[in-house]
Design brief:
This protein is an all-alpha fold. The protein has 14 helices and no strands. It has a domain at 1-133.
Length: 429
């Protein structure tokens, strides 16, 4: 039965990878991911279902369109194969090889597995877009976050790091504060940051994507070709060279974009003010001696509320993880921008680590925050030596760090356990 599940998950993963190819291309360009259906970007012909089988169809067609015979990029089967390996490999890691303890039985733990598989697929999509365009598709992060929170609330699992009742109350209150700030922004009472900035530095990617490569067509002629008229010069007209697209080397806002980054990031502090204020108020209400201490602790206590408390705690753990994951990057973004006078981190990175926290709880994004720079450091040095480039898209390295922490969580937890115990004891005082 385990092998049957593995084959099924590999197939599902490949199909998801096929969909990710659509998401990666269309979403950052503002196109619908539903319509039009899959078609050849060269001749526009709709792709038949038997030509749309992940990986296999690409091989059978010998990497060419059935109709126009134009080449099909190798990127498509690679993304499909990688997604299948991520989805199937996670199943093997948790339930067959049991390289992480406490996963349980697949038929019972499938909501947790579904959420983490969705996270890995989302991280892959965000990384591919960030590498190509230096932006993060926030919609992907939002979908993954919702899946994580719903999964944790509906089917609590030990893989979602728990939090104290007070921490959960603060996270919920902070979430309400973020909603308040979003509403105030929509009403025009709060102003978003960097809206007056000029376009970011950097141009289009160095090479156009396969979907946008132009088709070379011979011009049609009517009748016999005419000779040159007397007196006309036979010297060919000079052809103006086409502008060559340049690679993106910078994406951070600075004073060169017509804004003051320090002043702009203070708008984000103002945006966070309702969340911070409500979180502090919630802590005062549910802390020992607070007006809601008794009812809140009864609500989150299994002894007092039974199975319902487990679902409440699952919800709180996911929301707290979302807040902590986003806060790590957003805090560095604010402090770094104030210190250096240049946008320190992108908001897309905030959403990536927040989504990781929504699925796994607070522990994984916290460790990944400190692990990811080591993966990025070698690549950053190489870019600086080769191109003099001082910036790099950070989303792929956050994704890499998160994947490593998820897979090797037990070993990392055992190593950090004594230090974490001291911190937890201090926090619970």
């Amino acid at each position: 039965m385990a092998i049957a599940w593995l084959i099924f998950l590999l197939a599902i993963g490949a199909c998801v990878g096929s969909f990710l190819n659509v998401v990666v291309w269309r979403l950052p360009r503002g196109q619908s991911i539903v319509y039009p259906p899959s078609h050849c970007p060269q001749c526009g012909k709709a792709i038949r279902w038997y030509d749309n089988i992940p990986v296999l169809s690409w091989l059978l067609l010998r990497a060419r369109c059935r109709f126009c015979k134009k080449p099909i990029s190798v990127r498509y089967p690679i993304v499909e194969a990688v997604t299948a390996l991520l989805v199937g490999g996670l199943y093997v890691w948790y339930f067959l090889a049991e390289l992480r303890g406490g996963a349980g039985v697949f038929v019972e733990a499938w909501p947790m597995y579904l959420a983490q598989a969705a996270l890995l697929c989302g991280l892959l999509a965000c990384s591919l877009v960030d590498i190509e365009m230096w932006i993060v598709p926030l919609e992907v992060c939002w979908v993954v976050s919702v899946v994580g929170i719903v999964s944790s609330a509906a089917a609590p699992h030990p893989f979602t790091a728990s939090c104290t009742p007070a921490s959960g109350a603060m996270a919920l209150a902070a979430g309400v504060g973020l909603v308040v700030s979003i509403v105030l922004t929509r009403l025009g009472l709060l102003r978003p940051s960097f809206i007056d900035a000029d376009d970011r530095a950097g141009d289009t990617p160095a090479k156009p994507a396969p979907e946008e490569q132009p088709v070379a067509r011979k011009p049609k002629r009517k009748g016999k070709p005419k000779g040159r008229k007397p007196g006309k010069s036979s010297k060919p007209k000079p052809v103006e060279p086409k502008p060559q697209p340049q690679r993106i080397t910078s994406a951070a806002f600075s004073k060169a974009h017509g804004v003051n980054p320090r002043a702009e990031v203070l708008r984000e502090v103002l945006f966070l003010a309702p969340a911070i204020g409500l979180a502090i108020a919630a802590y005062m209400l549910v802390a020992p001696g607070g007006a809601l201490f008794g009812p809140w602790h009864d609500l989150t206590s299994v002894a007092a509320s039974g199975r319902f408390a487990a679902h409440v705690n699952g919800l709180l753990a996911a929301v707290f993880g979302y807040m902590i994951g986003g806060l790590w990057i957003w805090g560095i973004r604010i402090l770094g921008t104030l210190g250096f006078g240049k946008e320190a981190m992108g908001m897309g990175d905030v959403h990536i680590l927040a989504a990781v926290g929504a699925v796994t709880g607070w522990a994984v994004p916290t460790v990944a925050f400190f692990v990811s720079p080591f993966f990025a450091l070698a690549w950053a040095v190489a870019l600086w030596l080769r191109r003099g480039q001082r910036e790099l898209p950070y989303g792929p390295w956050l994704a890499t760090g998160s994947l490593v922490v998820i897979l090797f969580y037990d070993a990392i937890s055992n190593w950090l356990g004594p230090h974490a115990a001291v911190f937890a004891a201090a926090w619970n005082r």
